[in-house]
Amino acid sequence: MFQRISIIGLGLIGGSWGLALKERGSAARRVGCDKPEMLERAVAVGAVDEGSPEVATAVRDADLVILATPVGSILDLLPRLKSAASPRALVTDVGSTKRLICQRAREIFGDEPLFMGGHPLAGKERSGIENASAALFDGARYVLTPLLPNHLEDARVKAFLALVEAVGAKPFITEASTHDRAVAFLSHLPQLVSSGLASMVAGQGAEDFLPLELAASGFRDVTRLAESPYNLWRDICLTNIENIQAALDALIDKLEAMKLHLSDRELERDFARAFKLREKLRELK
Fold first, then answer.
1. Which of 91, 175, 200, 244 is most exposed by smallest CB count within 10 Å?
2. Are 103 and 163 in the same domain?
3. In which band, very low, low, confident or very high, does the pLDDT at 236 lie, cut at 50, 70 and 90?
4. Tally of structural domains, the chain
5. Under a CB-based contact definition with an 8 Å cutoff, are residues 20 and 134 in contact?
6. Which residue, 174, 194, 227, sits at the end of a domain?
7. 141-161 in b/e burial notation, b at 16+ Cβ within 10 A?
8. Are residue 151 and residue 45 in the same domain, yes or no?
């Protein structure tokens, strides 16, 4: 159904979308939109067939528009797409928060063009087209948040669901508010814990010197996400602040409780609950 696909933003996710479409043999013309130097690199690696730094030019005649920029940029792009995109197009995004984006899209678009919120749970700690991969979505959940339940019956949405599966991902349909609360605990909180722990250790004074040579796999694993750039997470925090604050409060309460029970069996119960959760995660793969 999609003969011309426009990808706005050619970083990790946008570049991977383009590469995955090519790898899976899509016949659609892939048109990118980004800064000229990024477009040149994306064309060179085969992520897109052509591109333009101008949004209106890139989305002209596109059947599918994928907004693969940071959340703040997605919100800024929505009003521009109302007049630039075809009213028959499907517009989707890859933003890590959904409530505000879907609310804004509903206000601006109505049903022309049709908007479907999206969030592939397939990121890496390193961003950029140089880290893009055709296999990025393999086995990953791909969250879809329709503005209205009946949008799932639209032919464009059905075609996009098939495309998500074609690039190796597993569609997961839910409401935007449900998504945002869940990822606050399961994605945003882990990022803040990782960055906070790394920042705390980095800020130790000379009198509290901690030789990093003693950092084994545990510390390295927990702080892996600390390599993620702030400019990506700034917009995520700003657009999901209440849920993230609730998640942080819950973690602080848990850490305070663990601190009180370092010498009794309550700590053992926490370890047992944690182990069972890890078992469930393994079963979900």
1. 200
2. yes
3. very high
4. 2
5. yes
6. 174
7. ebbbbbbeeebeebebbeebb
8. yes
Q: Which residues contact 56 (CB under 8 A, 6 or more apart)?
A: 80, 84
Residues 148 and 193 in one domain: no
Task: Report residue 93 as tokens.
Answer: 């995004």
Q: Is 33 strand, coil or helix?
A: strand
pTM over 0.85: yes
Q: CA torsion sign, 53 to 56 to 61 to 62?
A: positive
Residue 209 pLDDT class (50, 70, 90 cuts):
confident
Region 2-24 average pLDDT:
97
- 3-state secondary structure string, 77-116? HHHHHHHHCCCCCEEEECCCCCHHHHHHHHHHHCCCCEEE
Which two three-digit tokens encode residue 45?
A: 């690696």
Residue 56 shares a structural domain with residue 164? yes
Length of the chain: 285
pLDDT band at 237 (very low <50, low <70, confident <90, very high): very high
CATH number for the domain spanning 103: value is: 3.40.50.720
Asked if residue 162 and residue 46 are part of one domain, the reply reads: yes
Classify residue 136 by its DSSP letter: T
Q: Same structural domain for residues 73 and 205?
A: no
H helix runs in the chain, sequence order: 12-23, 36-45, 55-59, 71-84, 99-109, 155-166, 176-183, 189-202, 217-222, 230-239, 241-260, 266-284
Ranking 42-56, 178-192, 198-212 by mean pLDDT, the lowest is 198-212
Range of the domain at 66: 4-174
Question: Amino acid letter at 140?
Answer: A
pLDDT value of residue 142 = 98
Q: So what's the pLDDT on residue 210?
A: 86
